[in-house]
Amino acid sequence: MRYSRYFVHTLYEVPKEAETPSHILLLRGCFIYPAAAGVYSLLPLGHRVAEKIKNILRAELNAIDGIEVTLPVLNPAELWKATKRYYHIGQELWRIRDRRDREFVLAMTHEEIITDIAKKFLRSYRDLPVMLYQIQTKIRDEARPRAGLLRVREFFMKDGYSFHPDFEDLDAYYPRIYNAYLRIFARCGVTAVPIEADPGIMGGTGSHEFMLESPSGEDRFVVCSQCDYRANMEKATGLKPRRQDPPGTPPPMEKVPTPGIKTIAQLMDFFKISEEHFLKTVAYDADGELVLAVVRGDFNISPTKLANHLKAVRLDLAPEEALAEKRLHGGFLSPVGLEPGTVRVVVDSSVDDGTLYVAGGNQVDVHLKNVLCGRDFHAPEKVDIAEVRDGDTCTACGRGKLTIRKGIELGHTFKLGTKYTAPDAMDVTYLDADGENRPVIMGCYGIGVERLMASAVEQWHDEAGIIWPLTIAPFQIVITTLGKKTDVDQAAEELYRELTSRWEVLYDDRDESPGVKLKDADLLGIPIRVVVSQRGLKQGRLEVKVRRSGEVLFCSREELPALLEKIQADLMPEMDGLPFMPE
Amino acid sequence: MRYSRYFVHTLYEVPKEAETPSHILLLRGCFIYPAAAGVYSLLPLGHRVAEKIKNILRAELNAIDGIEVTLPVLNPAELWKATKRYYHIGQELWRIRDRRDREFVLAMTHEEIITDIAKKFLRSYRDLPVMLYQIQTKIRDEARPRAGLLRVREFFMKDGYSFHPDFEDLDAYYPRIYNAYLRIFARCGVTAVPIEADPGIMGGTGSHEFMLESPSGEDRFVVCSQCDYRANMEKATGLKPRRQDPPGTPPPMEKVPTPGIKTIAQLMDFFKISEEHFLKTVAYDADGELVLAVVRGDFNISPTKLANHLKAVRLDLAPEEALAEKRLHGGFLSPVGLEPGTVRVVVDSSVDDGTLYVAGGNQVDVHLKNVLCGRDFHAPEKVDIAEVRDGDTCTACGRGKLTIRKGIELGHTFKLGTKYTAPDAMDVTYLDADGENRPVIMGCYGIGVERLMASAVEQWHDEAGIIWPLTIAPFQIVITTLGKKTDVDQAAEELYRELTSRWEVLYDDRDESPGVKLKDADLLGIPIRVVVSQRGLKQGRLEVKVRRSGEVLFCSREELPALLEKIQADLMPEMDGLPFMPE
């Protein structure tokens, strides 16, 4: 491609709101252009990168028996009502009406549509298993689009859906998609950390996220210092260190007036004890029901864990009125002294039965001292609802320390089970070999194309610009001429013609200064730069620069093809050593 | 691909509303599945065909310097307000609001978005010309989705937009896209007739449609029996045969009471004259203004021609109240006797000054006889607003007869000029070589992928099913085994392995009867069928059937590769003889 006839217009200024490296560099390099908040056009360079990612996705998914389809953006709302997601998902599900007032949603994922297809066509055990996938436009009315392509309202998603005769078959297939995901990210040059994940609104029985550790990410996940344990914050568990009270008969509970004392700091000061001696009680509204959640004072409640335990679709902090109705008082909440059966109480497993706590008094300006779980209040629902903390001990190995990291979610795999195929959802069954009707078992698997593109930039950039992994670079080679001499142009033209038969070449034939050309080549991040200059011609040599290493090599015209092949081999992603799941 | 592990579930029943061959066969062959009225999923076979069409589009457009991009479905409404299309386009433009109540449209085409990009990046004459295109999801809230993929509400469109420094440059580029379109349709195996078209809501200064003549089409176009003239009904003109009155001084106009006489048939009977002796006057509401349109009685008014002449965005029949306001009477309308300046009158060129007509009297139960245009009423706006008629003489050659045909619009090319770049639209200018600001000149070019797929089926099918053109067939070859013997399966397996290195092969390895397999192969329309049977094996020969011709050939295993190449060569579309425009 000749630069002068291509569509690249690099920018030196970008909008102030662009803060993450990928946002800034993709705008500056003319890869993308915003149409609205969180809505982008992929300009020619960006389109090329996206196509390369799509082709890697196709190759890896076809290799594990994936079959490509295209499903529509317009989804009839009835299907989403059948699975209840119409009611459970918030405003990010864009609901619209057609000219005849029929309701549609703009699909943010395609479980409903694909399950409807499965219901129509998958009738017999001979039709299973099958994995259908697509790479298609998704629309989500995100509350806060951010960071360029990292969180957007419209994007290409690779979403795949597998259908199985039973859980064993899904379990057998799952490692294949998991490993394909590892290969996909590796082939795109991005270091993905697979972590245990919470299935969230997708529902189901098990899932993994694939994260790129990055300061630009908005997800958090934990990593064990000793073992392979990796999990997202919503799912991660750490060991909760036991507290040890002095031996002897525990003293009885007593009321302590605490006028004007409100914050935890004031309480610690007043009682002269540290955080872990308190019970922290928070009131939630879970699908309309008032729930008190109790953790030890040195922990925080994880709303996701609590919601999962409650199977709640919506979980918010309880409003004042809901507390007043039960004669409870914010700031003095406690699981102690509640009338049995009036309020549901969920207690975190950090609260043990053998140690004394200070708790709220369930009346204004009163706290309770020497509260003993099991004696002064009961905890029929004691489960893990606490957020893991940086430095907690790993539950998996019992030795390592957990560290909390920021990351970008690159992909997500779910074992859905019968969430969408169950009789109370879309009721999809097949006839097994014995003629029995059985529910179809599902898995689903997603990767966002644009986010993967931006993540590659987050991982691979420097001061000067992007450093595209060779596999997804818009062009592999840029030919840059220095000086305007006829012989330079002629040599470059010949080189361009020759190299295009083997490589994707951007030939910078512009009438620009060497400085501008070299700067643009660095900004665009083309992996290999071949410089044709008058001095080089005289010396019979070409200058070859590897963008990633910065290495500069010299060679003759004859040596060039072999050198380029060698550089390519060096730049190809390493597949060995990926943390594959046994298949 | 092994049929048993693929996703093909042919149907013997289809919805009653499926009437056109492509709708029926694409459903029966498991190429598509409806999600809602006019909204389809492309199942694996349909997806494959669409991808082949997309690749042909890409190859031909890249060959004429097209550069691919991806533009978003979500378009901010402001851009569409800037070009006024927000106001001018009816309900087919889907208007939606986001969670912050910002207004968007779901893009049905992308002039606004691409022009916004042009405005940002195309600053200098050195940036021009450039042609950007995409193959991307379009959404239109069609009033009447019909005929499967022929008219839908969501589809892939290839839309391209070219930007030029002046009209001469656009005129020079236009034949290249026109010829690329001819090659695209030919490569897809579809016979496209290029016709002169009306630019319609796209605006602009010249355009062509590419039509497949088909009884399933809903467009009409005219073809000259003698010359190359082809045009759509909205644009077509025929010679309007003159009427000849007897020589002598024309008699004066006179009022004739016509009580109870309303229809044209009654009038002809009453006055004992034929249609062409009447003036037919119809009242329209053109963007709120009352307009009387007058044609000779043997013609009909073309609302599109009238709207174009008036530059009207909306043109409807005038309501009773609008007539009453001007003291006009439906059924007795006439251009005669109107108070000057009160009502705009447009007269068709079929009405000549030298002949006498019967016209309405502009009062109830009265007609006028011996009305002479120029004497009894004036026609300052005499233009062509009549629909062409089957059998009219061609205006282009003056000899041939025009025939009206039904067709499917496959593609459309427009010279847009400055419709979108003008100062009162999006105001896009560039600096020319002399440093002068000049408006950018545009063209735009569209092809619907799914409609092209369906059109191929409309053109290529028989009683037994689809007959895919080889170039867009989901698979080129189907291997069918007859009988369940081990040696048959083994031979087929080997053949499958061998052929897949060169061809796209669907291997029907199902445990089904020969009848079912052969019937499915015909329905799916795979161009070449290779049959492996026990008898064939014994005789050392394979049966090869060409779906299109029905020809059955026999060959040995060794002869097969050469035979397949020969069949392919025979099936490749002919490019010579296409009606190319001189470049």
From TrEMBL, chains A, B:
Q: Which reaction does it catalyse?
A: tRNA(Pro) + L-proline + ATP = L-prolyl-tRNA(Pro) + AMP + diphosphate
UniProtKB keywords = Aminoacyl-tRNA synthetase, ATP-binding, Cytoplasm, Ligase, Nucleotide-binding, Protein biosynthesis
Q: Tell me which SUPFAM superfamilies the record gives.
A: Class II aaRS ABD-related, Class II aaRS and biotin synthetases, YbaK/ProRS associated domain
* Residue stretches in coiled coil: none
> Aminoacyl-transfer RNA synthetases class-II family profile domain: from which residue to which, for each copy?
38-469
Q: Where are the residues of the annotated region Disordered? A: 236-258
Q: Quote the EC number.
A: 6.1.1.15
What enzyme category does the UniProt record give? ligase
Intracellular or extracellular location(s):
Cytoplasm
Question: Which Gene3D superfamilies does the protein's record reference?
Answer: Anticodon-binding domain (3.40.50.800), Bira Bifunctional Protein, Domain 2 (3.30.930.10), YbaK/aminoacyl-tRNA synthetase-associated domain (3.90.960.10)
Molecular function in Gene Ontology: aminoacyl-tRNA deacylase activity; ATP binding; proline-tRNA ligase activity
Q: Which GO terms describe its cellular component?
A: cytosol
Q: Name one GO biological process term.
A: prolyl-tRNA aminoacylation
Q: Which InterPro entries match?
A: aa-tRNA-synt_IIb (IPR002314), aa-tRNA-synth_II (IPR006195), aa-tRNA-synth_II/BPL/LPL (IPR045864), Anticodon-bd (IPR004154), Anticodon-bd_dom_sf (IPR036621), Pro-tRNA-ligase_IIa (IPR002316), Pro-tRNA-synth_IIa_bac-type (IPR004500), Pro-tRNA-Synthase_IIa_type1 (IPR023717)
Its chief place of residence is cytoplasm
Protein family per UniProt: Belongs to the class-II aminoacyl-tRNA synthetase family. ProS type 1 subfamily.
Quaternary structure note: Homodimer.
| Recorded domain comment | Consists of three domains: the N-terminal catalytic domain, the editing domain and the C-terminal anticodon-binding domain.
HAMAP family membership:
Pro_tRNA_synth_type1 (MF_01569)
What the entry lists under PANTHER family is as follows: MITOCHONDRIAL RIBOSOME PROTEIN L39/PROLYL-TRNA LIGASE FAMILY MEMBER, PROLINE--TRNA LIGASE
Q: What the protein does? A: Catalyzes the attachment of proline to tRNA(Pro) in a two-step reaction: proline is first activated by ATP to form Pro-AMP and then transferred to the acceptor end of tRNA(Pro). As ProRS can inadvertently accommodate and process non-cognate amino acids such as alanine and cysteine, to avoid such errors it has two additional distinct editing activities against alanine. One activity is designated as 'pretransfer' editing and involves the tRNA(Pro)-independent hydrolysis of activated Ala-AMP.
Protein name (Swiss-Prot/TrEMBL): Proline--tRNA ligase
Species per Swiss-Prot/TrEMBL record? Desulfoglaeba alkanexedens ALDC
Q: Which gene underlies this protein?
A: proS
